[in-house]
Amino acid sequence: MNLCIGGAAGDGIETMAGLFEKILQRTGFHLFSTRDFMSRIRGGHNFAQIRFETEPISAHIKALDILIAYDSRSYDEHQQRLKPDGLLLCDPQLGIEDPRTLAIPLKTLAKESGNARTIGVVCIGALMKLLGLPLTTAETILRETLSPSILDMNLVAVHKGYESTVQKQPFAPAHHTESMLVTGAEAMAMGALAGGLQFYSAYPMSPATTLLTFFSAHAQAFHLVVEQAEDEIAAINMALGASYAGAQAMVGTSGGGFSLMVEGLGFAGIAELPVVIADIQRPGPATGLPTRTEQSDLLFMCFASQGEFPRMVLTARNHVDAFYQTARALLLAKKYQIPVLLLSDQYLADSAATIPSLDPQKAAQSVQPLPEQPDIGAVYQRYTLTPSGISPMRIPGKTEAIVRIDSDEHTQEGTITEDATVRKQMVDKRNRKLAGLEAELIEPAYTGADEPEVLLVGFGSTSAAIAEIVALLNQRGVSIGALAFGDLYPLPRKQLSHYWPLAKAVYSVEQNATAQLSKLIRMETGLHCTDSLLKYDGRQLSVDDILDGLKAFGIGKEVSL
After folding, report:
1. Which pTM value belongs to this model?
2. Which CATH number is 10's domain given?
3. Which end of the chain is more exposed for a tag (fewer CB within 10 A), N or C?
């Protein structure tokens, strides 16, 4: 079942969608929802799309079973996606003539409930009746969510909506184990806490602001220091100062903000300061599309800053992955004393999904820590040359020694040097960490035929849609498989080496215009993709988009969703 709620910014779409998601979860459904909104406070056209099933899902599709249109523009934008036997729920005042229309006086019923802004709850009541869902569940969620000052009018509204129609599409949920309902940003933030986060700094920048909001709201409960900086340059330098002082530090931003952090990234590299930089991608360059999604920062993240130093680039493929990868990013940064760059995007950050319970202990143990080393008295070499490249890291004030760091090239003691021999020793020392990092790599997840004739490669938030298409095509007799990358740089190679030679054709599936993952694979391994399936209009690749793209390559022409 696929539902879309459309209207203008300020119409309460987000509130209605959030309440209905909680109701669906409590009723026993699996769900995946997305948000599409314009960069404005009021007006324009926004919509929320909620897909709910009796089996787990983690991607969106285009075809709609139900369209709730608050205004005529929402009908105009989405009516072509509404199935021929679908249902259009709208107010008769819109004057829409469509045989699929179920006209309910939403505005009148909302006013009769005590406030015109209860229109979304009227819609929820109507949906409960249409889908044959228990009204008591909606009442419970309203009581748990709304403040007492507005509860009674909303209870009236949900009843009026329920009484306004009849049951049409009964949809019985399956019983399944208890689930969590989280957004990608919430999962990432919880993962950071599981990984030991102690300091978070950021300048508000969509779509990363939800991380700052989460950490600010929970700072006291989790003993966090959270700082809203005056700009991204200040944010990264605050985090590096906190790291020097012994805190596990993280910053969050989007591509434009990361551009300002690049000098700080290089400082972290040469000073060997652990820090995690979360880049919640949006389309660029410059301001780009502030509220849309893209995967165009990959190569920038891999090679930003002058000079050479080890780093790790990870990405979150889904909501569960966002939790574990974020915890892992903090632990890897701490262990190897490097910057770890964590890629997500607006689509994943703002989408919500039901997922199994997360395991903080598993997350906290995802990286084996280094053995504790004894303190070293008054003489301390912060950059001791070691076989692993990892030097003992001391916290100022918690050791008798002076803890020196430097952004210039430096000696083992941390003092500035221009000695050619020392320079080479330090570059080699830092780069020796790569051997350890490569041992930590997690290979991309594979799904599909054992010996695929067609291989897809993707990363991050396209992974779920790719996996759904592969499963569908396998069922229809198409020999296809897919590798979904979570660890990106250094690039894991074992699965590539195994599956690439088996396939007659390999396609990258990416949310950018230049096939950046395909380029990275070619750069690191010499392997060439046959072609790429790309989307870069600011909207996420859906299951339908990937199927249509494959059909253009002559794959699965007889298959339909």
Report:
1. 0.95
2. 3.40.920.10
3. C
